[in-house]
Amino acid sequence: MSPDPSLKKGSPVLQFTVMLESRVGALNGVVKLIQECHAEVLGVKLAESSDVTLARIVVTDPDIVMQQFLERGIPHCMLEIVVVELKDGVSSLPSCLSVLLQAETNIHSFYSLLVRSDRDHPLVAFHLEDTEFAVSLLEKQGFKILCQEDLSR
Fold it and tell me: Strands (DSSP E) along the chain, which ranges?
C-alpha cells in the first residue's frame, strides 16, 4: 500500500535573522545579495534599535543564501517558522489566531509574506513556542501549512 500523498511533508520553512548596522542602505545591500544569488525575498520583519537592526528574512532558496552569507561573513542565524495560508483571505486571520490560543502557545513573532503571483491567498509567518502542537491543531481546523518547497520557485 502506497503512502497517502496528502501526508507528504516537505522541509520546514526557514527564517534568517541577520544583524545589520543601523545605517541607510544596509537592508538594501542584503536584499541585493539575495537577489544576486538568484533567490527572492518573500518576507521581511525589522526590529530596530539605535545600534543594530535585526532583519528577519524568508527567502525562496535558503541553502544558497546561507552559503552566500557564510562566504561573505554576514552574521546570521536560522530557525524554523510556520507559514499558514489563509484560504478565506484576511478574514480567516482571527480564526487562525484562535487556534493558536487553543494550543496555548506563545507567538514570538508574526508577519505577512509577499504573495507570489501563482498564489491567490495571503500567507502569514509565525515563530511559535510549540510549533508541532500548533501545526497539528491548525491542520485539524483546515489551515494549510506550507513547507519550504511550496515557497521555492
Answer: 13-21, 41-48, 52-59, 76-85, 107-113, 123-128, 144-146
Against a cut of 0.70, is the pTM above it? yes
* Ordered DSSP codes for 34-71: HHHTT--EEEEEEEE-SSEEEEEEEES-HHHHHHHHHH
CA-based end-to-end distance of the chain:
31
Output the nine-digit C-alpha cell for 125: 509567518
Q: Choose the CATH number for 81-151 among 3.30.70.260, 3.30.360.10, 3.40.50.300, 1.10.1200.30.
A: 3.30.70.260
The domains of the chain are located at 13-79, 81-151
Four-CA torsion 101, 137, 145, 98, nearest 10 degrees: -30
Would the CA dihedral through 8, 130, 79, 125 be positive or negative?
positive
CATH of domain 13-79: 3.30.2130.10
- Could you say which residues of the chain have pLDDT below 50? 1-6
pLDDT at 5: 45
The Cα–Cα gap between 83 and 12 comes to 9
Residue identified by cell 548596522 is 21
